[in-house]
Amino acid sequence: MVLELKLRKIGNSVGFVLPKEALAHLKAEEGDTVLLTEASDGSLRLNTSKPQISHQMKAVQSIMERYRNTLRELAK
């Protein structure tokens, strides 16, 4: 599937609208969260949010908050 999407100004940002065909392919609907990730070949991939990834991201955020000072020292 190849869809040409036009970028539009939305407030101070730029976005695009997904047509019904793309939403059906993603099995997504209005209000769902999607993930934009970089593939190993440098391309970008758009996927629906998976609960496992959301859980992992929350765990990482918690660790980063808890060990903020330690991580800052290690980054030097």
TrEMBL record:
Domain of life from the UniProt record: Bacteria
Q: Which GO terms describe its molecular function?
A: DNA binding
All copies of the SpoVT-AbrB domain together span 8-54
Q: Which residues form a coiled coil?
A: none
InterPro entries tied to this protein: Doc_partner (IPR013432), SpoVT-AbrB_dom (IPR007159), SpoVT-AbrB_sf (IPR037914)
Q: Which SUPFAM superfamilies match?
A: AbrB/MazE/MraZ-like
NCBIfam families, per database record: doc_partner
Output this protein's name.
Putative addiction module antidote
Q: What is the organism of origin for this protein?
A: Prosthecobacter fusiformis
